[in-house]
Specification:
This protein is an alpha+beta fold. It has one domain: Vaccinia Virus protein VP39 (Rossmann fold, 3-Layer(aba) Sandwich). 43% of the residues lie in helices and 28% in strands. The protein has seven helices and four strands, in the order E-H-E-H-H-H-E-H-H-H-E. It has a four-stranded mixed β-sheet with strand order 1-2-4-3. Helix 1 links the parallel strand 1 (8-14) and strand 2 (35-46). The two termini are 21 Å apart. The mean pLDDT is 97. Keywords: Methyltransferase, Transferase.
Length: 167
């Protein structure tokens, strides 16, 4: 819960909102409260289809180990239409909203990406199962996310928007 009341002209968020799955509307309400009337909210977040193959492999691995992926999954990847509706319901006028793919090279490989971003999935497992589970996810993704040169990519899909707090 943001404690600010009409204190800012703008709020910028980059690659954070899709981690706020528990109550995305509360986040929007908090930003609205923090902005002065006419203030801008500009953000980029993972949109529907973001890291779809990686996401599916993580969820499949968790399910194969007898856990509920819906309970563990930390991400919220909304459609453009869904997020527009949330913003408008939250008191914003959406000036621009776009969804676009962004194929992203992974310089540390898939294992490095999973180490950085997949922690919620793996921390649900006993310590001794984490490395083998991560290796299994890498193995599942090898045919589609790694090219002939051994270079890995992630299938990012982004939502980018600019909205203004209504008066």
């Amino acid at each position: 819960d943001l404690p600010f009341r009409a204190e800012f002209d703008g709020v910028l968020s980059n690659a954070a909102l899709h981690w706020m799955k528990r109550d995305p509307d509360a986040v929007i309400r908090g930003v609205h409260r923090a902005l002065v009337p006419g203030g801008r909210f500009v953000a980029e977040l993972g949109g529907a289809g973001n890291v779809a193959e990686i996401h599916a492999a993580l969820r499949a691995e968790i399910a194969a180990r007898g856990l509920d992926p819906d309970r563990i999954d930390p991400w919220f990847f909304p459609t453009a239409e869904e997020y527009r509706a949330r913003l408008e319901f939250g008191g914003f006028t959406v000036e621009q909203l776009e969804r676009f793919p962004r194929l992203t090279p992974l310089p540390t490989g898939m294992d490095g990406w999973l180490e950085t971003f997949g922690g919620d999935f793996f921390s649900a497992l006993p310590e001794e199962e984490r490395a083998p589970a991560r290796a299994r996810v890498v193995e599942r993704l090898l045919p589609t996310r790694c090219d002939a040169k051994g270079e890995w990519t992630a299938d990012y899909v982004r939502l980018r928007f600019r909205a203004r707090r209504s008066a």
